[in-house]
Amino acid sequence: MTDIVLQTNIKGVPVRHGKVRDIYDLGDKLLIVASDRISAFDVIMKTGISRKGIVLTKISRFWFDLLAGTVENHLISDEIGDFPSPFCDHPELAGRSMLVQKTRVLPVECVIRGYLAGSGWKEYQKTQTVCGIKLPANLRQCDKLPKPIFTPSTKAEQGEHDENISFDRCVDTIGEEYAKYVRDKSIEIFSKASAHAESKGIILADTKFEWGVVDGKIILIDEVLTPDSSRFWPADTYEPGRDQESYDKQFVRNYLEEINFDKSGAGVALPADISEKTSAKYIEAYERLTGKAFEV
Question: Of 80, 179, 259, 272, which one has the greatest count of Cβ atoms within 10 A?
Fold first, then answer.
């Protein structure tokens, strides 16, 4: 598919290529470009997902707007005409880029879980806990938890795996005041987003937020409540006790599990049908969450 953007390089401008994003440092600002790369198990696949970066940018923008009265964020503009030179002269950046405030990034990922899935389910089966948090007995896979729980993790470098950590270790890492703030605010916005998603027939099972500090304030940064950072399930087919249909990259994860991918080293090429169906899932998530038709 010719519309897939795996990487951007603006001549004469240094860039850092993350798992999915290309980040250009402009001093007190950043230009963040969402590519069509997809990572699973912290490994970047060789195949991109058509229009994925545009979907991620549009969904993040939607949530930034919806949550504006609840939390401050780093977005300055997602309109290419507002970007400084030379970025404003590169049409390939349109729709998939955000000019944002540069912050001091807090070195923890703030994971909120509302349902028992993924690594949480695997841990629960062994210890009846998730990230050390004791849960009721006899819960099933994908059961709704009594209340959302905060399960922070480390921010892994590319090629490494995130590590779940306790709240106490989160305090040791960023300090008690910051840790309590990001825990409470993450749960608050997760609950607000869950209510919105539920009104659209979607279950928000879990998500992760990132936070940064600028001028002494903690603000929401990076992508927010996208199919890359969240598990979204269709409510009408939800049934505890099994894996759920999803609008997110769980579709790719399941394929990799089927082929016994070793979850390390180089990524693999995805079959065309997996790539195309994943693209359709991302677009459907955008359209259901926002109530708008997807347009490039």
Answer: 179
Q: Which domains does the chain have, with CATH numbers?
A: 16-102 (3.30.200.20), 105-259 (3.30.470.20)
Rounded CA separation 177/172 (Å): 11
Q: Which residue has the higher pLDDT, 161 or 158?
A: 161
Count other C-beta atoms under 10 Å from residue 254's C-beta: 13
Report angle CA 64, 67, 70 to the nearest 5 degrees: 135
pLDDT interval class at 161 (50, 70, 90)? low
Q: In terms of Cα–Cα distance, which of 136, 112, 146, 124 is closest to 231?
A: 112
Neighbours of 81 (CB within 10 A): 7
